[in-house]
Structure formats: structure tokens, C-alpha cells
Amino acid sequence: QIVPGVFRKAVEHVPVATSITDEHANILYVNPAFEALTGYSQNELIGKNESLLSDKSTPVTVYQELWKSITSGQVWEGRLVNRRKDGSSYLADLTVVPVLDDDGSVMHYMGMHRDVTGLH
Ligand code: FAD
Fold first, then answer.
1. Complex ipTM
2. Is residue 82 within 8 Å of residue 95, measured between CB atoms?
3. Cα(8)–Cα(48) distance, rounded to whole angstroms?
4. In CATH, which of 3.30.300.30, 3.40.50.10490, 3.40.190.10, 3.30.450.20 is domain 2-116?
5. CA 17, CA 113: separation in Å to the nearest integer?
6. Model confidence at 120: pLDDT above 80
7. All residues at 6 or more sequence positions from 54 whose CB lies less than 8 Å from its CB, including other chains
């Protein structure tokens, strides 16, 4: 199968911090842009929850809206405040895409985020 290999190589080179998680947001994969933006290595991130990135200053209602959308199979786009490994925070423009199995249940999520701090 050619496509999965090509897809992985393509994601590796996408200049947007990209991750794949299980249904609880536990990280299964991150691309090099994710490591570069957050300051964490792949080894430090795999198995951890995406909440590792939370600066804890984003209102909980934002996360509630996020989870309401994605658990019902809808794409969510929004902004939240993330914290890098070095403690610095940044404004993240995040898209979370639910990945459904053949029965339509959410099995995984793909997250993509950019640092938009400088744009504000
Ligand atoms: P949580 O314990 O997550 O709770 C916050 C609220 O979210 C709860 O009140 C609850 O209503 C809701 N909630 C949490 N888990 C579930 C669930 N399984 N089902 C239904 N509702 C739920 N967060 C970031 O801060 N930065 C990111 O870059 C980021 N990227 C993400 C990427 C992906 C692909 C996914 C799936 C999630 C991402 N998240 C991100 C969200 C993250 O998983 C946490 O929900 C968030 O960081 C809040 O963490 P918390 O520990 O403060 O609260």
C-alpha cells in the first residue's frame, strides 16, 4: 500500500504542529513541527494527554465547547492559550478533526495548531 507511507511522509513535512490522539486525547503521534513549536520531543509527548499543553488560563467553557463538538463528530476550530516546555505561553489557533471508524464512532482525533501570538 503506497498511500499510508506517502501520507506519513507528507505529515512529517507539514509545517503545522500536527498530532494524532486516541479518543481521550492521549497522544499517539506528533510531527516534527509539533516538537519544534512546543519544545517537547516525541518521546516526551507520546502517551501524554494534550492537556499537557494547556496554560490553564483558557476558560473551561472553551474546552467544553471543543469536547461537545468533537465527541459528536464535528470539526472544532478555535483559539486557546498553550504553554511550551520552557514555560512560555502562546496563542494557539487549533483545529481538531474527529476520525471515525466504519460504524461512525469516534476512535481518534487529529489536531493541528499554529502559534498566532504575533498576529494579535
Ligand atoms: P479536562 O479534564 O480535559 O476537562 C475540561 C472540560 O473538557 C471538562 O469540563 C469536560 O466538559 C470536557 N472534557 C474533557 N474530556 C472529555 C471527554 N473525553 N469527553 C467529553 N468531554 C470532555 N488542549 C489544550 O489546552 N491545548 C491544545 O493544544 C490541545 N490540543 C488538543 C488536540 C486534540 C487532538 C484533542 C482531542 C484535544 C486537545 N486539547 C488541547 C484538549 C485537551 O485534551 C484538554 O481537554 C484541555 O487541555 C483541558 O484540559 P484540563 O485537564 O484542564 O481539563
1. 0.95
2. no
3. 21
4. 3.30.450.20
5. 5
6. no
7. 80, 81, 82, 83
Cell numbers linked to 66: 471543543
pLDDT tier at 105 (50, 70, 90 boundaries)? confident
List residues near ligand 1 (CB under 6 A). Answer: 19, 21, 24-25, 49-51, 53-54, 60, 63-64, 67, 71, 80, 82, 92, 94, 96, 109, 111, 113
Report the separation in Å between the CA atom of 6 and the middle of ligand 1, taken as the mean of its atom positions.
Answer: 30
For residue 96, pLDDT beyond 90: yes
